[in-house]
Each structure stands twice: as C-alpha cells, then as structure tokens.
C-alpha cells in the first residue's frame, strides 16, 4: 500500500462506537423486556439492559437518514387522533362481526407524498395497528404502500383509504418532518393542517390526484391478491423495468387498463 493510500485510509477511518444504539433505544428496549416479563424488579431491568446492549451490538439497526424536527403540537395531534382511530375502528369492526355480514376485502395501492424511509415506515406501522387494515407491501422508491382492508365499505371505498392514509401521513410529517421535507411533500410548514397546502402545480402528485389512472388494486377475498399486486406492479415497471418507455407511455398503459376494468 502506497503512502498516499495509507493517508487516505487513516483520514477516512471512523472509530468503532460502543454502544452502537443510542441511550434512548437501549432504555426503550429495556422497558419492553420488563413489560414482557410482567415483573418490575431490579434484576429484570438489569437483564433487559444487557440483552438490549447485546442485541444492538450483534445486530445493529441500519442507519436511516433523518433530518426532521420535533413539533409538540403536531405530536399531540398525531397521538390523539391515532388513539381515537384505534377505538373507533375497534367498535366498527365489532359491530360488523356481530351483524354477521360478509366482508369485501381488498388490497389498495396508495402513493404517499413523502419518499423518506422513516415516514414511510411510521405510516405503515400506524396503519397496521388500526383494526381492519394492514400493510402487505411497500415500495420505497415511489413511496407506495399496498394496504389490505377488511371491508371496503367500512372505510369509505377506495377514496376513503386514500384519504385516510394521506391524512395520516400529513399528521406524521407535521409532527416530525423538517421545513424542506414539508415543502417537498406539498405542505405549508406548520404543526396542523390549518397551515395549508402548496398550490397543486407545485406540489408533487399523489395517489389521491391520480385515482383515474388505476392507482388502486382491489380484489374480493376469494381472489389471489398476490397476482393482482404483481400484475399491477408489472404494469408500472416496478418488476419488469420498462426502461425503454417514457413516463407518459406508462401512464397511458395504466389509464387504458383502468378504462378496460371500468368497462
């Protein structure tokens, strides 16, 4: 190795960090460990901390870029509405089951405004915790979530699912996103929706703006959802990669397919 190469290696080398996880992560994992055991003792806290330290050292969490900020009022709104959604959805699901109705489930594709891994994961996780919905797949590059709903009528149809997820994403962004991330997502920076949205030509397109372009994949419970999702992604070029086609051509194909379905 040349002297220049050694100099570059020495200058770019980063010392190993221990512990790999932040103290907040270690404390959170310790609390989870104690809750799982159901016994609040000094030994459980110590054992939980050691286990958290071991797990985060052997299998550290992957680094995810995050340049957000903490907005107290935005967080309060996010948590309060999320808890209300859980309670409300639980009652609706219980009433539906007691009425012995036949559910008409579907997998619906929703394109979010943000393309950040962090916000995509937060929206997916919170959506899955609300009874009656679960995220079955996601596509980070396009900021797309595939959501299975228990019954489409309970959630207001395809438009209702789009509206619910986009509103959930907005609350997440207004709680944690930076000024630039909010602008990139088409929102006027602020802690609440009252701050407003940017003009439509400026804001990025979303699944809510392009429902007519067959952005949704729905199917009855008895159908093969995997085939529907794969076929839909194949048309978008997600799996087969239509490098030789322009975005306009792809949109035209999707629009034609949507018209054939409606016909």
TrEMBL record:
Supply one GO molecular-function term.
monoatomic cation transmembrane transporter activity
Q: Which InterPro entries does the entry link to?
A: Cation_antiport_E
Subcellular localization is given as:
Cell membrane
- Give the Pfam families listed for this entry: MNHE
- Per the annotation, which location comes first and is thus the protein's main one? membrane
Keyword ATP-binding carried by entry: no
Name a GO CC annotation attached to this entry: plasma membrane
Q: Does the keyword Cell membrane apply?
A: yes
Region of interest: Disordered: 187-263
Residue stretches spanning the membrane: 21-38, 44-63, 75-98
Bias regions of kind Basic and acidic residues — which residues? Answer: 208-237, 248-263
Question: What topology does it adopt in the membrane?
Answer: Multi-pass membrane protein
Give the UniProt keywords, A-Z. Answer: Cell membrane, Membrane, Transmembrane, Transmembrane helix
By sequence similarity, the record places it as follows:
Belongs to the CPA3 antiporters (TC 2.A.63) subunit E family.
Specify the protein name. Na+/H+ antiporter subunit E
* Provenance organism: Arcanobacterium bovis
């Amino acid at each position: 190795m040349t002297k220049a190469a050694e100099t570059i290696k020495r200058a770019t080398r980063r010392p190993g960090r221990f512990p790999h996880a932040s103290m907040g992560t270690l404390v959170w994992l310790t609390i989870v460990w104690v809750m799982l055991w159901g016994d609040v003792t000094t030994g459980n806290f110590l054992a939980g901390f050691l286990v958290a330290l071991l797990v985060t050292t052997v299998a550290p969490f992957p680094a995810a870029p995050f340049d957000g900020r903490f907005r107290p009022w935005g967080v309060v709104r996010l948590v309060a509405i999320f808890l209300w959604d859980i309670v409300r959805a639980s009652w609706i699901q219980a009433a539906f089951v007691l009425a012995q109705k036949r559910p008409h489930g579907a997998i619906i594709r929703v394109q979010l405004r943000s393309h950040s891994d962090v916000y995509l994961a937060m929206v997916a996780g919170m959506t899955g915790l609300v009874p009656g919905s679960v995220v079955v797949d996601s596509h980070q590059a396009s900021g797309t979530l595939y959501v299975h709903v228990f019954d489409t009528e309970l959630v207001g149809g395809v438009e209702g699912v789009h509206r619910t997820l986009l509103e959930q994403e907005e609350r997440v962004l207004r709680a944690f996103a930076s000024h630039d991330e909010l602008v990139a997502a088409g929102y006027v920076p602020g802690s609440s929706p009252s701050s407003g949205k940017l003009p439509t030509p400026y804001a990025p397109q979303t699944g809510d703006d392009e429902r007519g372009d067959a952005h949704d994949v729905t199917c009855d419970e008895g159908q093969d959802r995997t085939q529907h999702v794969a076929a839909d992604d194949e048309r978008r070029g997600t799996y087969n990669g239509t490098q030789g086609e322009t975005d306009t051509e792809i949109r035209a194909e999707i629009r034609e397919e949507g018209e054939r379905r409606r016909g």
